[in-house]
Write a structure and sequence with these properties.
Helix content: 40-55%
Order of helices and strands: EEHEHHHHHEEHHHHHHHH
Structural class: mainly alpha
Length: 481
């Protein structure tokens, strides 16, 4: 043990530490019998004792074996020095070697063994940590793979939307072309250019053409209490005996096709109720629907053409009247522009499929290099409503119009129960469906916006027409001053 005590004559008086080792069963004893027979306790004293650093470990220097110390700390040779066991250098060294051999070296070996045992245990623990990290990484990768498989796997409903919308943009482009063509037809009816019905004699020839069309195509002899019989006679010989209702000119009486009677004045039957009209002004074939909407527009917006001008010099003195007529035509153009857009909305889409039976909507009929239009899939889906193929074509037409396709995307599609059951899907697909519905909504809002622009233009034209008399009165009053 370590204790503090001043031992006079052995250690200096100012020394504070003294290390004393009591040995009974010394580590140097090589057998248990020696230890049991030992009856002497050896005391080894050494100031400082070596350590706790590496300095003086297993080494010693006895400075006090020559005699006691005086008051000044010097060896007093007059007296006999006490004998310490450590003063026997040889014996002490042997004990020290025995300690090293039987204690320190085994302790070192044991420490090394414990170190490696602990290292192996730590290595085992570290493998658990590595395994945990590896399993966590694998689990994260599996979760991400599952999420990717879940989020990036489009549903059947999304694919249907993509199929339905195909062709809508192309049909919309055709709608604009049809509106421009119809606008040109109406402008020609006003101005009677070369090649039009009024080009020969102006208003007279235009009226004769329209009247002949009325007798053979739209006239109903039973109208006005059956007083139109003579007016509806094709040969106009005032002899009804040689005129048969429904017969072609010149021996017929009234419209050759009874289904077209009065369609030149019946907005609902001509344009209102139909989803798709057989209208395509890009070809050189005049269809019944094209003739009907043109006749209806002429009766609604401009009954007569401008008169023919034989000599352009007469316009030199009628410059203001000519400009007024041009202004009036511009106002009429604004008026019939809304009608032209209504006609274009219901004009049939671009024909993609070749002629086919009414019960065949299959995609294998699509010519090479052509995309399958969306209305083919629309027709296929409408079978779920219980409609026969013939009824579907009667309802929306062979090549459905832009109006019919938008009606399907904004109304008919959501009348099918499968649309709602298919919403039981992944969150990512629901978000995709919301985006598609938002896109369709934007398309519809754009159509409403264009309608509002036309309505605004009509309102401004009506306002301008209403204030023209007042402006003329004010200009006359100012010129009179």
């Amino acid at each position: 043990g370590i204790f503090d005590e001043k031992i006079k004559g052995i250690i200096p008086a100012d020394s504070k530490n003294l290390k004393v080792a009591f040995f009974n069963m010394s580590p140097a004893i090589k057998s248990a019998n020696d230890a049991m027979n030992s009856s002497v306790i050896e005391i080894q004293m050494l100031p400082g004792g070596g350590g706790p650093t590496d300095n003086n470990v297993n080494q010693f220097e006895m400075e006090y074996c020559g005699g006691p110390l005086d008051d000044e700390g010097n060896i007093d040779s007059s007296e006999e020095a006490p004998y310490l066991s450590m003063c026997d250098t040889e014996k002490f060294q042997a004990s020290l070697d025995a300690i090293v051999e039987h204690l320190i070296t085994p302790m070192q070996i044991m420490t090394e063994q414990l170190y490696f045992n602990a290292y192996q245990q730590v290595f085992a623990i570290s493998t658990f940590f590595d395994a945990k990290e590896q399993m966590d990484a694998q689990r994260t990768m599996q979760v991400l793979a599952t999420e990717a498989n879940r989020d990036y796997q489009p549903s059947e409903q999304i694919c249907r939307f993509g199929s339905y919308i195909k062709g809508v943009a192309k049909t919309e482009d055709k709608k604009r072309t049809t509106a421009l063509a119809f606008n040109k037809i109406m402008m020609d009816a006003y101005t009677a250019p070369q090649g039009s019905a009024g080009a020969k004699d102006g208003e007279a020839s235009a009226f004769q053409s329209r009247f002949q069309q009325f007798r053979t195509t739209y006239c109903n002899p039973a109208d006005h209490n059956a007083q139109l019989s003579y007016l509806c006679e094709h040969d106009v010989d005032l002899n009804l005996d040689n005129s048969n209702p429904g017969a072609d000119a010149p021996g017929g009486l009234g419209a050759a096709d009874s289904q077209r009677m009065n369609k030149d004045i019946d907005f609902f039957r001509t344009l209102g109720k139909a989803y798709t009209l057989d209208i395509d002004f890009n070809d050189n074939q005049l269809t019944d629907d094209e003739e009907d909407v043109i006749a209806l527009a002429k009766n609604l917006y401009w009954p007569n053409s401008f008169g023919k001008v034989e000599n352009g010099r007469i316009l030199l003195n009628k410059r203001y009247q000519y400009l007024d007529s041009r202004s009036f035509i511009a106002l009429q153009n604004i008026a019939h522009n809304s009608f032209a857009n209504m006609v274009s909305l219901k004009a049939k889409s671009i024909p993609v499929l070749p002629p086919q039976n009414s019960n065949n909507f299959q995609t294998e009929n699509v010519p090479d290099g052509e995309a399958v239009p969306g209305w083919v899939y629309m027709k296929t889906m409408m079978r779920d409503f219980g409609l026969a193929d013939e009824d579907i074509e009667k309802f929306i037409g062979r090549e459905p119009s832009y109006y019919a396709q938008m009606d399907f995307l904004t109304k008919k599609l959501y009348q099918q129960p499968d649309f709602y059951t298919n919403l039981y899907d992944k969150e990512a697909n629901i978000d995709r469906i919301n985006v598609v519905l938002e896109a369709i909504s934007l398309m519809q809002q754009r159509d409403h916006y264009e309608n509002m622009l036309r309505a605004e233009m009509l309102s401004s034209a009506l306002l301008q027409t209403d204030i023209i008399p007042r402006v003329e009165l004010i200009q006359g009053a100012l010129s009179g001053q």
